């Protein structure tokens, strides 16, 4: 589809990232826009390189002097013809003078004089932007700053040079232990000091206080030991410190390079409890060192041998949700990315004794074939475009404390390489990859990798000259160009939208002007956000090279009914499963016109009953988010009224925990109204905190007690609130509390206590405004009271259905 004429390649782009596939193919000449032309002369060459794990696409590389263009193209007849034409054009160009007559067909969008003058003024410029349209008289001029950035980016090879920097990356799961030994054997194990450190920890604090409040003195303690353990031959300055519960990432740079660090930002993503809590997830720091963007990601993924799919999901969630707000680049958009942490992938299909035997024989290659991370990478499920150095060290998990002996406990877990360091990007050479066996205070061994990485460094003199030249040319031409942008659709319509089944639509914004433009989705005057809560736009802002103007896009779709997003009142009124309802039955129940049939929703009873029968003694019943396919199965099971037992929906080892997570974090979280109604949030804050007083008030009218996560507010409602709250909400709340009381009877088996359950369910039972963030003192006071509430008999408070 790309036009090739004798001595010039017309490269048609929609201005996506390099090596991206343009998914909507042009049909007619009007669908094409000329972005750049490359002269085919003695400086021109082209090549291809394979894509690892891909049999359908290759990278096509166009090189002209110092400029390189890379395109991901599909292998086929069209790409073969294209390559043949390029080779033929190269041969023709050796014996003829370049001619640009073929460009005359674009005379309506390009001035012929300007076109020729551009080539004459810049004979050495390998990639020459084409002027597409004369400025319309009276229109606004171009964005000078954006244009300058764009032109400087094109000429970057002319004013930068690659310099080698050493980067030390380390990771250690410290198993909740305080720092009691020097970190110098780990952090200063090389003869020469590195230029930059990225040090990640996991499980620096396993206490409930750290989990509930995301506050721990261990952060400062471990960072102090890090600063004392860095290489003694250099001085280092902290660039950024990011922490989420027990995950901590510190990035430090040699003091002599500190002035060249800019645009520092960090973010955290929780993937644990609620699918968002920080007991699992990732923390990341991004920065620009000289003229190269770097990103460091420290993660702690889901535990247990069989949970590799959840680890894959955690990785995807971290990539999707990590948001460097001041620098809106995704992780993958950085020039160099270093991924480290306790990835928790284990050895499969081998027993503990078999693993130890292979280790004694030093048959690491055979063991690594059974490594889950290697297997999942080969299948394209995780970290596909990342590289990992050769592993020549012993597994890093699990050891008896203060020893080099693998786990001798009753569980005797098979040794595994849970702690890993991977990287992606150009110009990265891994020098060493190792573990540090002499660090024994944890059941994990720390791991480190040393890299020699090419960093793009600006030559100030060359930059100044190019900058001045560009300013002069911009002064001459800034009133000659009009930015233009085209969008392939202004109305986006989704198919039938089902609960927890995401749909994606692509909007292609293509530039037809010469001027770069920053784009952003902006909110309407009467809206608080640029899109509804149910919609996510990625990216919501950025830059298009070149051009831009305001566009208005309409988004619509039909949502399929589900019990997961229906009000408690409606669910208690429907006579059949929700997808079996007629439209008349649905409207009657939704408008509270039909009678109440159940004291609590049928769907809630089904899930609680299943957990009561199968999950009371189960550990980690609510520990992590359910897999997507598990959520869909339970949703369909409830919505259709299937007669199949719930347990046959899943692998038996997963079905109880899946139901627990979905019941807790999806069904209760996504009901149309919270268990404690929105209009009574203020009463929650103002209510008394004494359990006995609450009980007296409850006997008179109604008690709804609640602990709000991060604030854990609990409340009771006085008599003037009786008319405001339905008996159905009261029953649901008390029913859940009574189930939790049953769960506490088996705390020795399941490991839960009232404090933990209060923190888990508080955020769900009262979905309050995001702006309400009460202080820690209130949190602690209410946590202490909630224990009394859970251990008291509530059966007399239930109002039976009449």
Automatic annotation (TrEMBL):
Its main location: membrane. Transmembrane segments: none annotated. It is found in: Cytoplasmic vesicle, Phagosome membrane; Early endosome membrane. InterPro entries: Endo/exonu/phosph_ase_sf, Ig-like_fold, INPP5B_PH_dom, IP5, IPPc, OCRL-1_2_ASH, OCRL1/INPP5B_INPP5c, Rho_GTPase_activation_prot. Residues 163-459 form the Inositol polyphosphate-related phosphatase domain. It comes from the Eukaryota. Residues 598-795 form the Rho-GAP domain. SMART domains: IPPc, RhoGAP. Keywords: Cytoplasmic vesicle, Endosome, Hydrolase, Lipid metabolism, Membrane. SUPFAM superfamilies: DNase I-like (SSF56219), GTPase activation domain, GAP (SSF48350). Belongs to the inositol 1,4,5-trisphosphate 5-phosphatase type II family. This is Phosphoinositide 5-phosphatase.
């Amino acid at each position: 589809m790309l036009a090739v004429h004798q001595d010039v390649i017309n490269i048609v782009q929609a201005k996506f990232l390099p090596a991206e596939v343009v998914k909507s193919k042009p049909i007619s000449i009007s669908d094409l826009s000329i972005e750049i032309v490359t002269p085919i002369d003695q400086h021109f060459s082209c090549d291809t390189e394979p894509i690892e794990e891909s049999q359908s696409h290759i990278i096509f590389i166009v090189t002209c002097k110092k400029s390189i263009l890379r395109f991901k193209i599909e292998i086929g007849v069209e790409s073969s013809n294209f390559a043949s034409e390029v080779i033929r054009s190269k041969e023709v160009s050796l014996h003829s003078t370049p001619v640009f007559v073929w460009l005359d067909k674009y005379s309506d969008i390009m001035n012929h004089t300007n076109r020729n003058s551009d080539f004459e003024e810049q004979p050495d410029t390998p990639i020459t932007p084409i002027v597409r349209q004369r400025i319309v008289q009276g229109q606004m001029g171009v964005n000078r700053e954006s244009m300058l950035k764009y032109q400087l980016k094109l000429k970057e090879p002319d004013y930068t040079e690659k310099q080698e920097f050493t980067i030390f990356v380390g990771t250690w799961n410290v198993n909740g232990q305080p720092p009691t030994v020097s970190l110098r054997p780990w952090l200063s194990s090389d003869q020469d000091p590195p230029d930059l450190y990225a040090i990640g920890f996991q499980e620096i604090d396993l206490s409930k206080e750290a989990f509930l409040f995301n506050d721990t003195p261990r952060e400062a303690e471990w960072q102090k030991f890090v600063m004392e353990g860095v290489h003694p031959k250099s001085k280092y300055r902290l660039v950024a410190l990011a922490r989420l519960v027990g995950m901590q990432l510190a990035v430090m740079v040699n003091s002599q390079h500190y002035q060249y660090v800019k645009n520092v930002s960090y973010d955290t993503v929780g993937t644990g409890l609620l699918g968002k809590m920080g007991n699992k997830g990732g923390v990341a720091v991004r920065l620009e060192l000289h003229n190269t963007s770097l990103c460091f990601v420290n993660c702690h993924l889901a535990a247990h041998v069989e949970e590799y799919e959840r680890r894959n999901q955690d990785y995807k969630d971290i990539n999707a949700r990590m948001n460097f707000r001041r620098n809106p680049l995704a992780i993958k958009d950085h020039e160099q990315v270093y991924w480290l942490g306790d990835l928790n992938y284990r050895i499969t299909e081998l027993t503990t004794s078999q693993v130890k035997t292979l280790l004694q024989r030093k048959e690491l290659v055979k063991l690594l074939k059974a490594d889950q991370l290697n297997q999942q990478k080969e299948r394209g499920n995780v970290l596909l475009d990342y590289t990992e150095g050769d592993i020549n060290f012993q597994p890093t998990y699990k050891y008896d404390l203060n020893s080099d002996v693998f786990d001798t406990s009753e569980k005797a877990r098979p040794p595994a390489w849970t702690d890993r360091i991977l990287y992606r990007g150009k110009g990265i050479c891994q020098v060493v990859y190792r573990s540090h066996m002499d660090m024994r205070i944890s059941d994990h061994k720390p791991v480190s990798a040393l890299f020699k990485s090419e960093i793009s460094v600006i030559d100030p003199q060359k930059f100044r000259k190019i900058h001045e030249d560009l300013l002069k040319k911009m002064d001459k031409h800034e009133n000659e160009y009009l930015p233009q942008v085209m969008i392939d659709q202004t109305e986006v319509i989704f198919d039938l939208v089902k609960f927890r089944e995401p749909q994606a639509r692509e909007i292609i914004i293509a530039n037809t002007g010469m001027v770069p433009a920053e784009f952003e989705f902006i909110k309407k005057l009467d809206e608080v956000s640029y899109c509804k809560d149910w919609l996510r736009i990625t990216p919501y802002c950025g830059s298009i090279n070149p051009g831009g103007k305001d566009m208005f896009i309409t988004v619509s779709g039909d949502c399929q009914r589900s019990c997961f997003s229906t009000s408690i009142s409606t669910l208690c009124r429907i006579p059949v499963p929700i997808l079996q309802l007629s439209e008349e039955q649905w409207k009657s129940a939704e408008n509270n016109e039909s009678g109440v049939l159940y004291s609590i929703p049928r769907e809630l009873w089904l899930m609680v009953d299943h957990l009561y029968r199968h999950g009371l003694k189960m550990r980690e019943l609510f520990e992590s988010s359910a897999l997507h396919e598990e959520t869909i199965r339970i949703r369909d099971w409830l919505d259709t009224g299937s007669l199949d037992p719930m347990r046959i929906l899943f692998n038996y080892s997963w079905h109880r925990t899946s139901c627990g997570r979905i019941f807790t974090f999806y069904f209760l979280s996504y009901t149309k109204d919270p268990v404690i109604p929105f209009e009574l949030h203020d009463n929650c804050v103002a209510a008394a905190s004494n359990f006995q007083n609450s009980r007296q008030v409850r006997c008179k009218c109604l008690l709804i007690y609640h602990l709000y996560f991060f604030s854990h507010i609990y409340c009771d409602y006085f008599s003037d609130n009786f008319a405001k709250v339905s008996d159905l909400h009261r029953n649901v709340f008390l029913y859940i509390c009574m189930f939790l009381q049953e769960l506490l009877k088996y705390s020795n088996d399941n490991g839960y206590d009232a404090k933990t359950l209060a923190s888990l369910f508080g955020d769900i039972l009262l979905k309050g405004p995001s702006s309400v963030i009460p202080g820690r003192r209130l949190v602690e006071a209410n946590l202490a009271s909630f224990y009394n509430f859970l251990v008291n008999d509530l059966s007399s408070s239930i109002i039976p259905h009449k």
